[in-house]
Amino acid sequence: MSITAEEAGRLSQTQSTTASALRLGNRLGMSNLWFAFIALLLGLPMGLYQVAERSGYFPWLESSHVYFASTSTHGVLMAYVLTTFFMMGYGYHSMAHSLKIKTWSPLFSWAGFYMAVFGTALAAVMLLTGKASVMYTFYPPEMAHPLFYIGAVLLVVGSWFWCIDMIAGMTQWKKQNPGKPVPLVMFGTTINAMLWLWTSAGVAIEALFQLIPVSLGLKETLDPGMARTLFSWTLHAIVYVWLIPAYIAMYTLVPKLAGGKLFSDEFARIAFVMLFIFSVPIGFHHLYMDPQQAAGWKLLHMLGTFMVAIPTFLTGFTVLASLEIASRLRGGKGIFGWMLGLDWKEPMVVAGMLAMFMLTFGGFGGLINASYSLNAMIHNTQWVTGHFHLIFGGTTVIMYLAVAYWIWPKITGRQLHSKAMAVWQLWLWFIGMLVLTLPWHYIGMLWYPRRVSSTPYEHVGVVAQWGIYELMMVVGGIILVVSGVMFIYNLIRTHTNKIAEPDMTVSYAEAIHPPLKVPNILNSLTFWNWAMAAYMLISYGYPLLQFFFIGTHGAIPFGI
Amino acid sequence: MHVDPLEKRWLYVVGGIVAFTIAVQVYYAAAKGIHPPSNVQTIDSAKLHLSKEFAENNLGVHKNTDGSLDVTMVAARYGFYPQEIEVPIDTPVRLRIASLDVLHGLLVPYSNLNLMVVPGYISEANTTFTKLGEFPMICNEYCGIGHDYMYARVRVVPKNN
C-alpha cells in the first residue's frame, strides 16, 4: 500500500506542527523552571540565616531589620516565585507532550512569563531594600512600598496568562478528540490552572481595592478584618495550588519510573476534583482566633477543611499501591518488605516514597491546625511554621526536585550529570527537613511564638526549654542548604554533559485499567466551576457582605 | 468506572476517620460550648482613649459579683497595657482587648489563651489559669520591627490572696 503525495504532505505537516509544539513547550518549560529554581537557591540561605539568627547562639548575626526583611523575602521567593514558575514550567511541558498542541499564541505565553518575571523583580527590589518587611502575608494596616504590591500583582496576573493557556489547550484538545478522556497529567494541570484563578481572586481583590490604593495614598484607611477575610480566601487554597503539581508527578511519573502502572486513573481524577472544590471555600480555619468572623462560619469552614483531607488520603493510597505493584513486578515481597524491592536508585521513586513519608507526618499536623478547638494550642506558634515547612518544603518541593531530574534530560537532550548524586541529594533534603521541622513543631507546642527574631522575655523558665531544639534546627538548615546547592550543581552540569540522553520520549504512567471513557463530570470543569461558585457564595457571601453594615472603622496605615 | 475492592474498603476507612473527627468537634461545640474566640464587635482603634471601656483609667482586672474576672487590655506597639496583671488561680477570666494601631496577637504559656487582636475590632476570650507563677503574655503576630519586645506579665496567684 502506498500513500498519496497529499497524505504524505499532511502527515509531514502534522509531524512538524507536533515538533514545533514540543519545542515551544520545552522552551517555555525550561525558562520557567530555571527561574523557579533560582528562587529556591536564593531563598535557602535566607532560611538558614533566619533559624541561626533566631536561635540566639550567634549574637553577631542579630538584627531585627535584616531578619524581617529576610523572612519576607524568603516567604515570597519560596511560596510565590518558586511555586508559580514551577507550576507554569511543568504545565507548559505537560501540555505540549501530552496533548501535542501549541499554546494558542506563543507571544501571549511569553508575555505572561515576562510579566511575572518583571513583577518578581519589582517586588524583590522593595523586599531587599527593607521597604516591604510586611511578611509574605502582607498584614495590613502595616504598609509596604506600593511597588511591592504592584510587583506581586504583576506576578499573579502573569500567571493568569498561563492559566488561560492551559484551559484553552484542554478545550481545544477536547474539540479535536470528542468523547476521549483528557490525559490525566493535563486534567490535573488544567484543574490546577482553574483552581489558581479562583484562589488568587481573593488576594487580587485585597491588593486592588485595599493595599494598592492605601499605599499610594489614594485611600486613607482600610478595614483589616475585611483584608484578612479576603486573604483567607487565597491562603488555604494556594497551598493546594503548590501541592497539585507534586500530586500530578506522583500519579503520572512515579508509577512509570518505578517500573509499574498507576493503580487507578479514575480515582486520581476524583482526587483532583475534590482538591478543587474543597480547597477554596474553607479558608476560615486560618481565622479561628480572629474577632471579625462569627463562630458558626468558622464551624462551616471547618467541615470543608476536613473534607479536603479525603483526596490526600486517596492519593496516598493510590500512589503507594502503584509503588507496591511496581516493586512486586521487580520481585519485591512481604507486607512491608516490598518497599525494599523498589528501585532506590531512581530519583523519582526515592522522592515519591520520602514525600509520602513526610505527607503522613505533615498531614497529621494539619489535622491539628484544622481543628476548631485544638487550634488554640498551636495558633501562631512555631508549630505552624514547622508544619508548612514539612508539608510544603518537604513533600511538595522534594517532588519538584524529582520532576526537575526527570525533565532536564528530556528537554536538554543531555543525560543527567549524576543520578547517584541526585539520590543522595534527595535523601539529604529529607533528612534536613526532618531535623529542621520535628524540633520546630515541638517548640511550637512549648509556646514559642511565630514571627519573632529573638525571644527576649524575662521568663527564663519558658525561654530556656527552647534552646537545644533551635540548635538542632540550625543543623537541619545547613543540611538543606548543602542539598539545595547539590541540586543546582547537578542541573547546571547536565546542560554541558557530553553524553546524550538515550530516551528522549516523554510518556506518562499507564493505568492498570486505562479509561476508554470517563464520566463527563471527571473530564470537564464546567460543573465544578458552578459548584465552586455556589459553595463560595455560601461560605464567603455573608462573611464578606457583613463588613458593609456592621459599622466598621477603617484602620490607619502604619509603616513597619 | 472501575473501583477496586481494596480501594472501596479504604474509602470506608477514610470516610470513617473524617466523619468521626468532625463529629467530635461538632459535639464539643454544640454540647460543651467550645468555640474559638469569635465575638464580632467593632471599635474605632484611633479613638480607644475616648471609649469608655478602653480608656486608660479602665484598663486592668475587674472583679464581677459572681467572683469571675473581667480583664480589659489594650495592645499597642510594643506592649500590652497594663503591662502587668495579677489573677487568682482557677478563676474564670474574660479577657477583652483592642488594638491601638496594627495587628497583634497574644498567647500565654501554660494556658489555652490564644487570640488575634485586629485593629477595628474588640477581641474576647474566656480562660481559667491553672498554674501558679509568672508567665509572659507574648505577642504572636508580627507587628513591626520591635515585635520581639512586645510582652506583658501575667501573675497567677493563690486564690485567697
Q: Evaluate the radius of gyration of chain B.
A: 21 Å
Provide the CATH superfamily of the largest domain in chain B: Cupredoxins -  blue copper proteins
Assembly status: heterodimer
Q: Any idea how many domains of chain A?
A: 1
**What is the fold-level CATH name, i.e. the topology of chain A?**
Cytochrome C Oxidase, Chain A
| Category from helices, strands and their pairing of chain B | alpha+beta
Largest sheet of chain A: none
> What's the SSE pattern of chain B?
HEEEEEEEEEE
Q: Please name the CATH architecture of chain A.
A: Up-down Bundle
Write down how many β-strands of chain A occur, each being a DSSP E stretch of 2 or more residues: 0
CATH architecture of the largest domain in chain B: Sandwich
* Residue share in helix of chain A: over 70%
Radius of gyration of chain A: 24 Å
Residues in helix, % of chain B: 10-25%
Q: Name the shape of chain A in a single word.
A: globular
In the CATH hierarchy, what is the class of chain A?
A: Mainly Alpha
> SSE string of chain A, helix = H, strand = E?
HHHHHHHHHHHHHHHHHH
Essential attributes:
heterodimer; A: 560 residues; mainly alpha; Cytochrome C Oxidase, Chain A; B: 161 residues; Immunoglobulin-like; three-stranded mixed sheet; 10 strands
Task: Write the topology of this structure.
The complex is a heterodimer of chains A (560) and B (161).
Chain A: H1 5-55, H2 64-99, H3 106-128, H4 146-176, H5 184-215, H6 224-235, H7 237-252, H8 254-257, H9 265-279, H10 295-307, H11 309-329, H12 347-370, H13 375-378, H14 382-412, H15 419-445, H16 460-464, H17 467-495, H18 526-545
Helix pairs in contact in A: 1-2, 1-3, 1-17, 2-3, 2-4, 2-5, 3-4, 4-5, 5-6, 5-7, 5-9, 7-9, 7-14, 9-11, 11-12, 12-14, 12-15, 14-15, 14-17, 15-17
Chain B: H1 5-32, E1 60-63, E2 69-76, E3 79-81, E4 84-88, E5 92-99, E6 104-107, E7 114-117, E8 122-128, E9 133-138, E10 151-157
Parallel strand pairs in B: 2-5, 4-10
Antiparallel strand pairs in B: 1-2, 2-3, 5-8, 6-7, 9-10
